[in-house]
Every structure is written in structure tokens, then in C-alpha cells.
Amino acid sequence: MRRIAGIVLAVLLIGGVVVAVVAGRSNEDKGTATKTVRMVTGSEKAEFFADPDVVKALAAKGYTVKAETSGSWAMEGLDLKGYDLALPSSQAPAVELAAKYEVTGTLPRPFYSPLVVVAHKNAAEVLAANGLVTLDEAHQGTLKMAAYLDAARADRTWQQLKGAAKYGELTGTLYLSSTDPETSNSGALYLAAASYVANGGKVVATGAEVDRTAPLLHKLVSVQGAQQSGSDAAFRDFVSGAGNPLVVVYESQVASLLADGQKPDDLVVLYPDTTVNSDHTVVPLTEHGKAIAELLSSDPALRELEARHGFRPQGEATEFTAGTSYLKQELTGVRQAPVPTAKVLHELARRARG
User: 177: helix, coil or strand?
Assistant: First the structure.
């Protein structure tokens, strides 16, 4: 993984939810940037804002960005007085923040990333042999969400899957590891996709639909035990070989790893056949915040850097080139599930956590 060079502070706020991760500029840029902008962002974007090339691109426009990370849904509980912008990982928490801070107008969404499941090769091959996955290439495949949810309902274990016995690490209940859906966007969006499939291909909108899908969502979460509060830590654990062999992450995190020159032979990227795009959405709190949002959306240099870090810039997104057998260039064959309203998603997360 790319080294986060800009770490200058590690402070715990509201129970350890927020950690400051990005300093501003390198020494050679100190004469360039004149405006310091404070922001809070999802952990998966920490490396982007710490990238020296991103720091230089922003400094060339007259800005130094000091970023702190937080779970996207946890941002709602923060006091953002003195901040210039918030950049949660999807639109729903951004809308909540905009209402809280009386931000009007269309919220910019400069880039997005679909949810994927990273799997160790042995796990992916066993799932394929049992009809839960189709493998398109050695390092890429499709997760059949309906089949997976059926397995979850039945409490299927790895030991019940043919071919798993020869792999000692594949034991216990079959499940996807995800982040805490009450604080982290990726965990909440996982529930959004699962609830859509469980609700017969319809977004959960009513109390009756919440009641109908909540027991399965609780099973998906409770089997995991303790969950990470951010996707960055969950992905790092997977890459290091720790924990569960199946983890829900953002496609951008995989792309960033590959951009560093790492191509793990043991990694398979599974695109759920029904997933949710994470629309990284800016809530500008000041004029400087609006300026950063505009730069992230339209500046050619920053768009190229977003794509380098694995984010798909909005619009034609010609900058994003998978260029690898791990990732899909086009998201054909992947159904995008609508996300429930923030109120419903909060309730699904609360019920899932139980």
C-alpha cells in the first residue's frame, strides 16, 4: 500500500471515531499554498489526500488541505464548526450533514467507487465450485448475491461446501466481513445491497419491509463479531492475511493497491451481481470548501489523480483505466441497487447490529 506520508496527528474524538491523517504540503510547496482548508473525510480517501502529487496539485491552485478521517455516518455526531467541508463516502450521510448545517443546493459528487468483495484465491475457487461465484479471470469474478444470502439464511459453513476440506483456513460459518454499518458507509451500503436483494429486487422503504429484511441483515452482521469502524483498516487486515477470507471493500482500495505495483497472486476481486456505488459527496461548509469541491470535480490533474487512486471520476470518466485482470473497466452485468433513505438505512443498521 502507498505509504501515508502526511500523518501529523492522531487524536481520538467521540470515542475514537475521528483520526487526523493529512498534513498539508511538503517543504518545497510552502511558498505556494496560501489558504488552509480543514475537512473531514472517509478513511478510504486518506491516502489520496496524503499523496504528495495531490498535495502539489492543490497547492498549485492555492490550497493546503488538512484532512481528518471519520466513519461517514459518524460525521453526523461531530461538531464541524471551523471546518470547510465534509466528504463522506455516499450521498445519504451527506444529505444528513447538509440538513444539519443548512447547506442548500446540489451537493457535488466528484467521483464514485462500487462495493466489491476481496477474496483469497482458495475461498473464491471453493465458492465457484459450489455455485456462489462465477470466475471470469484468475483474479476477477462475480458474487451471486441471492445465492450468498440463501447460504447465510441457512447458516452454511465452509465445511459444508465441497472442496473446502483441503484448505485448513476455510472453517466455520461462511460470511462476508464488513464495517460497522452504524458508523461506516461501506458497512451501511452492504446492508443496502443485501436488503434490496432480500426484498425481491425492491428498495426497502416501509416499516413492513424493514421488519421483513431485518432478521437476515442481523444474521449477516452478528456472525462477524466485532467490526472495524472504517474500511481502510478492514482492507489492510485482509492484505496482511489476517481475519476472514471474504471482505467487503471499495473497488478504489484494490485499485490503489495495484497502482502501487502490488499484484497479489492470492487476491480475487468479486463484483456482487447486485451492488451499490459509493458516491463520494462533498458538503461544502464555506466558500473555500466549495472551491475544493469544484477542483475535485473539474480539475484535470486532480481527476487523473483520483483515477490513479482507483476512484471513478463522474462524467465520462475516461481517466479510469483498469488495465489489470483484477478489475472491470466497465461495470456491465452489475446491477446498481438504489439506496434506502437515510432514515430507513439508519433503522436497518440499528436492527442489524441488534
Answer: strand
